[in-house]
Design goal:
Strand order of the largest sheet: 1-7-6-5
Number of domains: 1
CATH class: Alpha Beta
Shape: globular
Oligomer: single chain
Number of strands: 7
Order of helices and strands: HEEHEEHHEHEEH
Radius of gyration: 16 Å
Helix content: 40-55%
CATH architecture: Roll
């Protein structure tokens, strides 16, 4: 059976809690990713997970309230913690894929953080499980 280490995305792109929402949305679009771990780089600690779904919901809210022309300005004035999940699921690299799969299914979050010795080393997404099934 495969392990977390075999299917995870190692060394994921991360953003600081001080980055703005517009930067995060542009980074996701540029790198074709749907989740970005958010870190306190001073303490090297994971503090949240930002999802494409949360960014899109935020953008729709801004457009509905302020109009499309205000979207970029509003996003540039918002820090990531206003839209991130501050309690993302976190698993140790030695945990079981079954536990990760259960979490993804129960929370419908689409992504979990993977740590080793309390440091972020990767992420596992629901797409990683699809790739695992198609691997054979």
């Amino acid at each position: 059976m495969s392990s977390i280490q075999e299917i995870m995305t190692k060394n994921p792109i991360c953003l600081s809690e001080h980055a703005n929402v517009h930067k995060a949305r542009m980074l996701m679009a540029d790198k074709s990713i749907r989740h970005i771990p958010v870190k306190d780089f001073d303490n090297n600690q994971l503090i949240g997970m930002l999802s494409q779904k949360a960014l899109l919901s935020n953008a729709i809210r801004i457009i509905n309230l302020r109009g499309m022309e205000k979207l970029e300005h509003e996003e540039k004035s918002m820090n990531i913690p206003t839209v991130m999940d501050a309690s993302p699921a976190v698993f140790d690299v030695n945990d079981s894929l079954k536990n990760v799969a259960k979490s993804l299914l129960e929370t419908k979050s689409g992504c979990v953080a993977i740590t080793e010795n309390s440091e972020l080393v990767g992420v596992v997404t629901s797409i990683d499980f699809v790739k695992l099934v198609l691997k054979d």
